[in-house]
Automatic annotation (TrEMBL):
Span of domain Glycosyltransferase 2-like: 5-164
Keywords in alphabetical order: Cell membrane, Membrane, Teichoic acid biosynthesis, Transferase
GO molecular function term, any single one: CDP-glycerol glycerophosphotransferase activity
GO cellular component labels: plasma membrane
Membrane topology, from the record: Peripheral membrane protein
CDD domains referenced in this protein's UniProt entry, alphabetically: Glyco_tranf_GTA_type (cd00761)
Similarity field: Belongs to the CDP-glycerol glycerophosphotransferase family.
Organism from which the protein derives: Terribacillus saccharophilus
SUPFAM superfamilies registered for this protein in UniProt: Nucleotide-diphospho-sugar transferases, UDP-Glycosyltransferase/glycogen phosphorylase
Family matches, as InterPro entries: Glycerophosphate_synth, Glyco_trans_2-like, Nucleotide-diphossugar_trans, TagF_C, TagF_N, Teichoic_Acid_Biosynth
Name of the protein described by the UniProt record: CDP-glycerol glycerophosphotransferase
Length: 707
């Protein structure tokens, strides 16, 4: 059986190594050697590699004395390889267990065969492994034109490499593969492509702390590398028309995607322009004769080295594209108005825009900050963002619909923004703008940069979060514990307001007033029944779409009603991300579906007891010093896989962990005993997490931010 040498250059990818190497060890093709080239990785990664080497005899591990770059590492691996075929795999990716077998059995007489790449991020990685089979489409092998310039997921004949002296270009950090790949383009008119040979390419989710090579370089560095490779190959293959066509096509593509973008977004572009101009002169006119006149002019000015005309043409090109986009969609038109008109108008010094939970309701700290200001006659104009307008609100603020033209107008002009979650990335913060981020809970579950893997629907979560949170000027901390975590997990370095949560003022100020009964009457809850509130959080892995998650009720309502129905009613309150409806038919008068109720703080006020899970609601509810049960039926999955926690919940929680409805019923029937049992823990919990709150948090925040 023919031997395959799998060459894996490694640089600081500890967390991905197991899945990468295991995927090679599990190959159905038997005769494989694994050549790992440790390219000067850190100690953690090196130790991990050494451990693997001991375990497995197929692995040949080499250490380079310092980081020499991926091209050098691959060339080094090539020298060590003894197989009939070579296959390149990156150390943060992995392959399906039949990939090599499929490639070997279909390569025939060709010097190279290509497989199919599948992009994976944390959210679909499990799915990709689990559903590996259905991914494989058993189609006949197809000869296709060669589009992609990367060396991974190709089985290459060693003879061919040796015969042509193929190498990766070592004096660039990126695009070093092109030099290795190009001979195939010029010598093979067609390359077999096999859909069943899968390569799982990982999309890194933390470009801030753990960037991939591409993510780590500036656009200027990438452009310089590309041009260097392009120039060298153009000269080397001047006599090979196929290679020339391939190179020209790549240049034009790169010009339109990367060079133009760089020039539009950077001030000092002279250097890049000069170098690109030099390369553009190597491009054959025929390669771009089919493009539209504006792009052709752009390329001509680039070739002539006329920067000012090039700039003019680029701006015209941009304007044309923008207006084309603007008519394509209303939202885009609003955004264009926002950028080109509203942001140019002066800031309104006395305007504050408020938003809570992405416009879903009138609640949380923004509500209480706002109400404090209205009640104390602060001289400001107030604007609230909602998904649905038309609420009756104290102070009668202006209400705007989220993402409407007025939304963009007020966000552009208001000096102040107050929000409890993130505002969209496409908004621009003006220099004069003051952004108060209230956030929305003491964290139990790990946050952003403390999270290892992202299981939720948005794979760009970390980088989005990073850019959105750079705009925050103030951030409210409910307690010292949150202060420390927020600083680290949000990488927040502006002013933290150690005030406690404004949203909990109501729990201190209205606990003993008529308000609780008024709220019960408004909802229609009998005054003679005790109230249990069930308020669980969302599950990162159960998504329907971005921002839309599913939740299945694990409470047995029938059992609860049967045992507790005479004394209690149950309020069901789902997290605002939950998109499916909870069905309570048959339980009317006992169960109340209040997921759409505006403000959960009002539900806390009227509840005698809380059941929750890993939601931050219990940190707030504890301000009332009322009993709390933790219905943690999926604790292991949630804590160990999906999120990870900041505290040892078995030690610190101020109430019991329960796993099923029977245990819930049992705790409720013995609630007095439970209160005694948990008294000390409750006191300690209260001091640590609720100690800063006294009903005056809104006042402290307003005095600080609005002077
Ligand atoms: N919430 C609610 N109803 C629920 C759950 C939550 O109204 N059933 C509200 C509460 O105000 C809660 C907030 O949403 O404090 C945040 O909910 P969490 O369940 O804690 O989850 P998440 O939105 O992921 O925020 O630092 C806090 C974390 O970021 C948690």
């Amino acid at each position: 059986m023919e031997k395959v040498s799998v060459i894996i250059p490694v640089y600081n990818t500890t967390e991905f190594l197991d899945s990468c190497i295991d995927s090679v060890l599990q190959q159905t093709h038997d005769n494989t050697e694994i050549i790992i080239v440790n390219d000067g990785s850190n100690e953690e990664c090196t130790t991990k590699l050494v451990g693997m080497d001991d375990r497995i005899d197929k692995v040949k591990l080499f250490h380079l004395p310092e980081n020499k770059g991926v091209a050098f590492a691959r060339n080094f691996g090539l020298e060590k390889a003894s197989g009939d075929f070579v296959y390149f795999l990156d150390s943060d990716d992995y392959i399906s267990n039949t990939t090599l077998e499929n490639l070997v059995s279909h390569i025939g007489e060709f010097p190279m065969i290509t497989g199919k790449n599948v992009s994976v991020n944390k959210a679909n990685e499990l799915a990709a492994i689990e559903y590996k089979k259905p991914f494989v489409i058993y189609k006949r092998k197809r000869l296709s034109r060669f589009k992609n310039r990367s060396a991974v997921n190709r089985l290459v004949r060693m003879d061919f490499i040796k015969e042509h002296g193929l190498q990766f270009k070592e004096d660039v950090k990126v695009f070093s593969d092109m030099e290795f790949i190009l001979p195939f383009i010029s010598l093979m008119p067609r390359v077999p492509y096999l859909k069943t040979a899968l390569y799982f390419k990982r999309k890194r989710n933390d470009p801030i702390n753990n960037p991939s090579l591409m993510q780590d370089l500036s656009s200027e560095e990438k452009i310089k590398d590309f041009l260097k490779v392009f120039n060298a190959l153009k000269d080397q293959y001047a006599e090979t028309p196929q290679a020339i066509r391939y190179l020209d096509r790549h240049f034009l593509n790169f010009f339109r995607k990367s060079i133009v973008l760089h020039c539009q977004t950077h001030g000092d572009i002279e250097n890049v322009f000069r170098e690109a101009s030099y390369s553009a002169n190597k491009v054959d006119k025929k390669a771009y004769s089919h493009l539209n006149i504006v792009v052709r002019q752009e390329i001509n000015y680039l070739k002539n080295g006329n920067l000012s005309k090039f700039n003019k043409m680029m701006r015209l090109h941009l304007r044309l594209r923008k207006s084309k986009r603007a008519v394509q969609s209303k939202r885009k038109f609003f955004i264009q108005m926002y950028r080109s008109v509203f942001l140019k108008m002066p800031v309104k010094e006395k305007t504050i825009v408020f938003e809570s939970f992405l416009g879903k309701n009138y609640s949380c700290s923004p509500k209480y900050i706002y109400e404090y200001m209205v009640k104390n006659n602060y001289d400001y104009n107030y604007v609230w963002i909602f998904n649905e307008k038309g609420r009756q609100l104290p102070g009668n603020p202006k209400q705007v619909k989220r993402f409407s033209l007025s939304y963009y107008y007020y966000l552009a002009r208001a000096k102040y923004w107050v929000s409890n979650s993130r505002l969209p990335k496409h908004l621009d913060k003006r220099e004069e703008n003051v952004y108060l981020q209230t956030w929305h809970g003491t964290p139990l579950k790990k946050l952003v940069f403390d999270m290892n893997d992202i299981h939720s629907a948005n794979p760009n979560y970390k980088s989005d979060f990073y850019s959105q949170s750079r705009r925050w000027d103030y951030l409210i901390a409910p307690n010292q514990f949150s202060h420390d975590i927020f600083k680290r997990a949000f990488l927040f370095d502006k002013e933290m307001l150690d005030t406690g949560y404004p949203r909990n003022d109501i729990l201190h100020n209205e606990k003993d007033t008529d308000l609780p009964n008024e709220i019960k009457r408004k909802i229609g809850i009998p005054l003679d029944k005790k109230v249990i509130l069930y308020a669980p959080t969302w599950r990162d892995g159960d998504f329907i779409d971005r921002g839309k998650y599913r939740f299945d009720l694990s409470l047995d309502l029938a059992k609860l009603k049967e045992t507790l129905g005479d004394e209690y009613v149950v309020l069901l309150r789902m997290h605002y991300f939950i998109a499916n409806n909870i069905d309570i038919s048959g339980f009317e008068g006992f169960a109340y579906e209040l997921s759409k109720y505006e403000d959960i703080a009002e539900l806390y006020l009227i509840s005698d007891m809380l059941i929750t899970d890993y939601s931050s609601v219990f940190f707030d509810y504890a301000s009332l010093r009322r009993p709390i049960l933790f219905f943690a039926y999926d604790l292991e999955l949630y804590r160990d896989t999906l999120r990870g926690f900041y505290m040892d919940i078995e030690k610190e929680l101020p109430g019991p962990l329960v796993r099923n409805t029977d245990e819930i019923i049992n705790s409720i029937q013995n609630v007095d005993q439970m209160n005694i049992e948990y008294k000390d823990k409750y006191d300690a919990f209260y001091d640590k997490y609720c100690g800063w709150e006294d009903g005056k948090a809104s006042e402290r925040v307003v005095k600080k931010v609005f002077k």
